[in-house]
Amino acid sequence: MSKKISSLKNKLVKELSKLKQKRYRQENGLYVIEGFHLVTEALNANEKYKYLLGTEEALAKIQDIFPHLLTSMNTFVINSTVAHHLASTKNSQDIFMVLKITQPQNYHFNFGKWVLLDHLADPGNVGTIIRTADAAGFDGVVLSPESVDIYNPKTQRAMQGSQFHIKLVVQDLIDVIKEMQDNAIPVYSSMLDQNARKLQELVKAPQVGIVIGNEAHGVTSEIEKICDQKLYIPIKGEAESLNAAVAAGIIIYYFS
């Protein structure tokens, strides 16, 4: 039988509400996803969740697809007041799942196609790039520790479930790039630089690392120096530059 929660003073509700903040996500090793699409993606990927919470109506919709869920001891029926309190969106779908943070430790980069995000700050850009890398069949995305938290609710919404399909790693990019190069994986940095090569001039490598820099400041000088090649996407109109996620998408599909 599913348990019912109707008070904002409930201990679990208080704990889960705190997970909107990065500090508490890190302390507890947990994060929340919200909405039917993300919850369904997690269940289809057989993700082991800690809690599933939703209004009776929302859980009924999920039960139609996954009949066993409402018999789980980890499923809680909440009212609309609690749902509104937990929601990170204005128009919540009243369904939430709590998952463990399972970040790979000491991942080895000896094969594949990867996007490397250097100090990216916008959660929408990061989520969109991860989703694009997933769609293009890349192996994963590596984020510098200074980049936005991938468990940020806005990042989660922008990823649209791609976090369940490809590897997401938070690791020092200098170490990652050196390991890729030691394994004959070329690493290219995207830059607005007259000394860079046009994207179309580069040979499409079967394995590759693509560095995308911060939205305002670009790739850091330390990363730029160790990459194999700088590349740029020609601007044909009057715009000064491309949005980071758009530029990443063009490069990702070039090498896909």
From TrEMBL:
Q: Which SUPFAM superfamilies match?
A: alpha/beta knot, L30e-like
Report the Pfam families cross-referenced here.
MRM3-like_sub_bind, SpoU_methylase
Q: Which InterPro entries match?
A: Alpha/beta_knot_MTases, MRM3-like_sub_bind, Ribosomal_eL30-like_sf, rRNA_Methyltransferase, SpoU_MeTrfase, SpoU_subst-bd, tRNA_m1G_MTases_N
**UniProt GO BP:** methylation
Domain called RNA 2-O ribose methyltransferase substrate binding: residue spans:
32-105
Segment forming the signal sequence: none
Report keywords, A-Z.
Methyltransferase, Transferase
- Keyword Ligase on entry: no
What molecular function does GO assign, one term?
methyltransferase activity
Out of the domains of life, which is the source?
Answer: Bacteria
Give the family per the record.
Belongs to the class IV-like SAM-binding methyltransferase superfamily. RNA methyltransferase TrmH family.
Name of the protein: RNA methyltransferase
